[in-house]
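Is this the right way to post structure tokens for a design question? Let me know if I should format differently. Anyway, here goes:
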């Protein structure tokens, strides 16, 4: 049985992951201009560029906090429920945030995909909620 807290945790994960993806993309703009002579210097220069750039660093930290919430939620939620719900909702959040930031949306096919994704998530949530009243569960357990 999935609790409201678990659902809210997965929603938080999805928002933190999905909404930060387009911001990370924007924050990383300009990294292609960083050039060094060897691979190690190039890597260090790119890491320095990203981590001294607050437009990248803040979304990165928010994204990673979503990962912390996700791993905590996995410890209490069924894996077969948590993984598809978190990933599908984060995909939707990425699309919507990208659209708000002026990115191409993908047209009618993207809308159909989002609707089908929401239908799938809804079915997943409905199938994971135990319809029996908790008080009735206790009575049933006492009888058996």
């Amino acid at each position: 049985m999935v609790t409201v807290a678990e659902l809210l945790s997965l929603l938080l994960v999805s928002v933190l992951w999905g909404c930060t993806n387009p911001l990370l993309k924007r924050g990383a703009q300009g990294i292609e201009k960083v050039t060094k002579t060897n691979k190690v210097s190039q890597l260090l220069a790119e890491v320095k560029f990203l981590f001294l750039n607050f437009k990248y660093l803040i979304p990165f930290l928010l994204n990673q906090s979503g990962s912390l919430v996700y791993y905590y939620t996995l410890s209490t939620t069924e894996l077969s429920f948590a993984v598809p719900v978190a990933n599908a909702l984060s995909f939707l959040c990425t699309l919507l945030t990208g659209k708000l930031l002026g990115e191409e949306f993908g047209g009618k096919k993207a809308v159909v995909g989002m609707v089908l994704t929401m239908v799938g998530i809804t079915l997943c949530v409905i199938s994971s909620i135990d319809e029996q009243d908790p008080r009735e569960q206790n009575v049933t357990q006492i009888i058996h």
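Format looks fine. Someone answered above. Worth noting: The first helix runs from residue 4 to 27. The chain is about 80% helix and 0% strand.
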